Amino acid sequence: MNPLLNEFRHREAQYNSRRHFLRQGALGLGGIALGGLMGCGTDAGAQVAKTKEEKIMATALSYAPRAKRVIYLHMAGAPSQLELFDYKPALQKLDGQPCPPSLLAGKRFAFIQGTPMMLGSQATFQQHGQSGAWVSNLLPNFSEVADEVAFLKAVHTEEFNHAPAQLLMQTGSPRPGRPSFGSWVTYGLGSENENLPGFIVLVSGGRDPSGGKKLWGSGFLPSIHQGIQCRTAGDPILYLSDPEGMSRDLRGKSIAAINEINKRQYDEVGNPETLTRIKQYEMAFKMQMSVPEVMDIEKEPDYIHEMYGTTPGKSTFANNCLMARRLAESGVRFIQLYDWGWDNHGSSRSTSLEEGLPAQCKGIDQAMAALIKDLKQRGMLEDTLVVWGGEFGRTPMRENRGGVEMPFLGRDHHGEAFTMWMAGGGVKPGVVYGETDEIGYAGVRDRAHVHDVQATVLGLLGFDHEKFTYPFQGRNFRLTDVTGTAIKDIMV
Amino acid sequence: MKRSLLVLVSAFIMLTCQEERTINFNEDIRPIFNEKCIGCHGGVKQAGGFGLVFRENALRETDNGKFAIVPGKPGQSEIIARVRHENEELRMPFEGPALSEEEIHLLETWIEEGAEWEEHWAYLAPTKPEIPVIEGGQPDNSIDAFVMAALLPYDLVPAPRAPKRELLRRVSFDLTGLPAPEFLAEVFLSGDLAYEVLIDSLLAQPSYGEHQAAKWLELARYADSRGYERDRPREIWRYRDWVIKAFNDDLPYDDFVTHQLAGDLLPDPTEDQLVATGFHRNTLSNGEGGTENEEFRVASVIDRVNTTWEVFQGTTMGCVQCHAHPYDPIRYEEFYTSYALFNNTVDHDHVSEAPRLRTLYAADEVKYKRLEDWVTEHAEEEARTQVQSWRQLIKVREPRLRPDLFENVEGGVFTARADEDIMFLRPGNSFALPPRDLSEVAALHVNLRPLGSGTLEVRLASPTGQLLITHAFERGRQEDIRLPLVIPGGERVLSIVTRGDGNGKILAIDAIGYEPKLPGAEQPGAEDIKTFIGDLLAAKDSVNTLIMVETTDESRRKSYLFERGNWMVHGPEVTGGVPKLLDGEADTPIENRLDFARWLTNPDQPLTSRVAVNRTWGQLFGIGLVATTEDIGSQGSKPKNQQLLDYLATEYSGPLGWSKKRLLRQIVLSNTYQQSSRATPQLLAKDPHNELLARGPRKRLTAEEIRDQALAVSGLLTEKCYGPSVMPPQPDGLWGTITHSRNEWVNSTGEDRYRRALYTHLRRSAIHPVMSTFDASNRELCLSRRTITNTPLQALMTLNDPAYLEVAERLADEVSNLPNVPARIDGLYELLLRRPAEPLEQQVLVQLYDDAYATHQDAHTALTVVANALLNIDELLTIS
């Protein structure tokens, strides 16, 4: 062990205290809860005097964790539950008939005006596997793994515009400013790999989600917990590459020189923060190697590429799924995928239910099925939680933007009921939780609010979401704001 | 530590002397309540019907019919029984460690003595404390007396003065955000310039205002974009410039506050005072398709309330939006009395971002000046009022009627959603304007967007009434047109009708305003002026800055309490006001933003001065006298030296006349500020965060300072002040993926590439990486205090960002003519830190130079590698 690091540990134990604890640098800063137990940030030792945050965390980790990490697949734009999972033969019969006023009175829609027509599903449905789960013909590969997942059929949200709804889903509040899901989780659990960030974001579909980068911001948590977006073009992480002409060897020597000078500074001045900085430069040097390595999917064998349908070099959802598995294997705590293009209004061919949606499904079907199979064959599914969903659902009515019939078929934003699924990480496989009415408009049994979904994920990671708080501006904030109940029925 | 000492002392007095002694609620009792009880027995959660935020709640009968506190009778007070209870299940604090015997005694005595309540210290107006007498020599600067008095019980003495070189760097960064300019540094270090003169010189630098502004802009959540999905650009940089000028001119803080909160409501406001109201136009607006404008207008108003209370009062109001404050004595309704004050500005999440102050091009400004002069000359009534209303009409295009006030709409479609918040009309559609006395009206100003070809008619009384004027239009951009009218007097209704072919939308109307008759309209020369009015209305703006404008009577909004914070569920109607807690003896009603600002800046107001002083202290020392600068309420940290805080607060609002320069001057001239920041392990252990101030401050540079320093030391920094934001290079592709946005980052060239960080274009959804990496906020909400981190991503940036490489190359250029490698390394150290390299540094860097030379066989490249390393050393990233 590097003597400098030994000293670092020693000093840390001596001087650590609330503020310093928070400023403790490591990327995967030992989670407040498990700091002393795993991976990077072990320095933020357990000997530290109990801070307010730590006291909170000590009680927040209340359950035996079933999941150690999360892969969250967010379909940005909000996929239609009525074309994918929520089979409604009654809606088919009402196709083309005017929507009854009772479904419109007092409701707010983004674009629907006047009286829209009901719209039957544009997909065909079949039951699959032993569980008999309904999955449409648009997801043939996924239907093969239907027995692995738990469906939430009556998720609901009060937000009906993309950015606020995505913020609610990923930060617990529709307004900007709160820490994101992944930030909370790495804050609580830290990282398992000191050479990689604990929270990584991968984006496909050519656009960021509407909520933008604040969806993986750290809010009022220290910024080391913000999600790091790994890009497929340019540096995977900003400024990761050495400048032209700077060899690895020379970079190593230059960092050694910096650290030696900083060590002298520390000897003279005695500021513990200087030691932290030395450590960060060592980590930066290691990350320059480890990040490109883990992001390089080309090394994967052919059968894996066939399984996922990957094309190295492209920023596709399939590539991101494979990368997610590699990151999970390397100990990244929270891996968030955003796939853009699910906003099927029918205002153009590419956003139509008849052409846009099937194409979009084709882009994810094989890869997300492969991800589950692959995790399973590696024995990782049991402690890796996979979550799939959008930010809201879509109306059983056909969109009539501007009060007129549109050239393509589409559905408007709809928060009252939509489908999400989870797999692995302590989730009961092959179950369906929740049910919507006969046209899929609203939940009629076992509804789940966004905060309930978040409470469930935190529960699977071992947290009591009500106790997992962070004091800010005189109040204890939590991911689930002031509501939410973990859904025990889908937990093993 | 101090508190337990106090507790022990008071317990000792109680137990042994048996003397009559009044317990001090704030010192002795409140800390127990806040730490042990209030989590369950607060303002929201009142377990068992018992809450400790208001005295009346605490003395009330609880759910089980008992009284927790019976003044004068500890024996009958359930609270005493329960904290002593032998059954763990019943003993309080529930599931927590028992209170100590001393604490219980304190509670008993307090109840015995009548259970008197006292407001939290921060809600009582500060009084100027006596300056402590220091044995062995009274310090000149009273700050030092307070600090030394506080050190005594800890057996600590102040640290020696910092070395001159360190002090120069510290004070220069603290006042201007930059290393000291060469001309000051040399004379100061050579002993030819007194420290006091150095301070005055630094305060007089234009960079002073820029640095102070950079800090203020984070509180003001200033940005050059609108936020949310599309995050389109926003033009509000004149507000940023106003802040810089206000600091450089040392605008007194009471005016600084008033202009920002209510500049538009001042009598006869100047354009600068209007621009200042940009403070609260920095809220987000949502242009995502299908968003309801009212929802996001309400969100902006709520943000304005929260920001106002956080910035000016160090009070967190967010909780009170949904329910009573859990810890501070602020009631649920009281959030909405503030809400009502901010609920009547014209802005409404509209895509136009109206209202905005137009800055005209020079030739048009001349015409505008002639119009103003004409009005002044010919006005019969109070000329100033008339000039004001003409300015509103031409430069702000207010007041205007918007589609929600249009009446008798026939066929027109208005959705109040995102960018469709406009009245769409097809041929034959019509609407009416509310009845109004039109005898003084000369013309209508109509903001419209033609979507096809047709004509617009203005008719009297009804869509078929007398035709007053027609306007032909063809598909084109949104514009303002002037329709002169000659209308018989009296109250009249005007009807607007569209004519054209087909059934498509041909016209969209956003707003309509009335132009009054020009004073002296019959005088010679009036025709020229009338032409100018039309010209000015249509003139292209050079800048168009977001400002606040109060609604007129006809469009005034009512304010309601929102049930559980839900804006769609209205409770009772509320009117403007301030929380009773802080109201004091206020005898004038607080009805609008101006009343509020005046109340806020009254020297007796308990929080305003304390909060401002505390924030200033925090900026200099890295930690405020109350550590939680955003919250000095009962859940905030307790001030380590309240006497010092109150001294500075009363000085600031009193003798210092709210002058920030004078306040800063007094602090940086203190010995406390000038102490060396070196800390022995013993001192570090005793006082890790330097709350006792037995040493000088040590801080990491801020994001802005890191960039600015690199540019300054390499001679790249340009001194240009003010103007539109600039785009120094950033990695490709950071903007390209923002949804539904075609805006592009276009690298600035020439001097704009090397300007201070506060001029960098700030797009909320993708702030410049140097800002996000070094802990700056993305400006979506007010941020009082950055959490400073230390991460590998920061290392990667200062190692590999091409901007820093350019700096390293420039540094290498600067020293390349020195005779040998050690001299060049010394030269680099002089440029960066104003000292030669120490032997070990020489040795390490010569080695690095040799290694780099071995690889590249080029002296300049090798020197650049060395400079690149030096830009990463701890000493350069911190101020000590």
TrEMBL record, chain A:
UniProt-listed SUPFAM superfamilies: Alkaline phosphatase-like (SSF53649)
InterPro entries: Alkaline_phosphatase_core_sf (IPR017850), DUF1501 (IPR010869), TAT_signal (IPR006311)
Pfam families reported for this sequence: DUF1501 (PF07394)
Top-level taxon of the source organism: Bacteria
Name recorded for this polypeptide: Sulfatase
Automatic annotation (TrEMBL), chain B:
Keyword Iron-sulfur: no
Residues passing through the membrane, by range: none
Gene3D superfamilies named among the record's database cross-references: Cytochrome c-like domain
Keyword GTP-binding: no
Residue span, Cytochrome c domain: 24-115
Keyword vocabulary terms for this entry: Heme, Iron, Metal-binding
Pfam families: PSCyt1 (PF07635), PSCyt2 (PF07583), PSD1 (PF07587)
InterPro entries associated with the record: Cyt_c-like_dom (IPR009056), Cyt_c-like_dom_sf (IPR036909), Cyt_c_Planctomycete-type (IPR011429), DUF1549 (IPR011444), DUF1553 (IPR022655)
Name by which UniProt lists this protein: Cytochrome c domain-containing protein
